[in-house]
Amino acid sequence: MGKQHDRVEYSTLMHRLEAEFVAKSTITHVTDDIDGSPNAEIVTFALQGVGYTIDLGQKNLEKLTKALSPFIDKATRQRGNVSSSVRKSNGHSERGYDIPALREWAAKKKISLPKRGRIPGAIVQQYLAANSK
Questions:
Q1: What distance in Å separates the CA atoms of residue 101 and residue 119, rounded to the nearest whole number?
Q2: What's the CA gap between 31 and 60, in Å, rounded?
Q3: CA dihedral 102, 108, 109, 111 (to 10 degrees)
Q4: What number of H helices and E strands is found in the chain?
Q5: What is the pairing mode between strands 50-56 and 41-47?
Q6: Are 89 and 82 in contact (CB under 8 A)?
Q7: With pLDDT > 70 as the criterion, what percentage of the chain qualifies?
Q8: Per DSSP, what are the bridge partners of residue 45?
Q9: Strand ranges for the chain from DSSP E
Q10: Cβ contact 50:44 at 8 Å
Q11: In whole angstroms, what is the distance from residue 69 CA to residue 88 CA?
Q12: Per-residue pLDDT tens for 18-37?
């Protein structure tokens, strides 16, 4: 019975060691969304505040670039993410309140806020209640 027990422990130990040393490799092949050609790259662009991504091979990327170039040549380049600049345009985004105004209100009330990141919900509720009157 001692040898059987030793074999089970050895087998379990080897299984654990094999599991720890198994390497996994994932290869992703990106193909053109238009014609299925290989070696495509992810292309991002935006139109009227909506961002798009598409996988394009060299031929279709050149087509897109050529089609857009008269417009790009005359356009003004925006800094940062197009969708974030669209959201910032009204100051409220989808939250329903203006974060800089909330921070200013909290500073006047001597309410401590984190310099970055999420503002605690209780403080947001206080702000909304104070400004709904």
A1: 13
A2: 11
A3: 60
A4: 5, 2
A5: antiparallel
A6: no
A7: 71
A8: 52
A9: 41-47, 50-56
A10: no
A11: 27
A12: 666 666 777 888 899 999 99
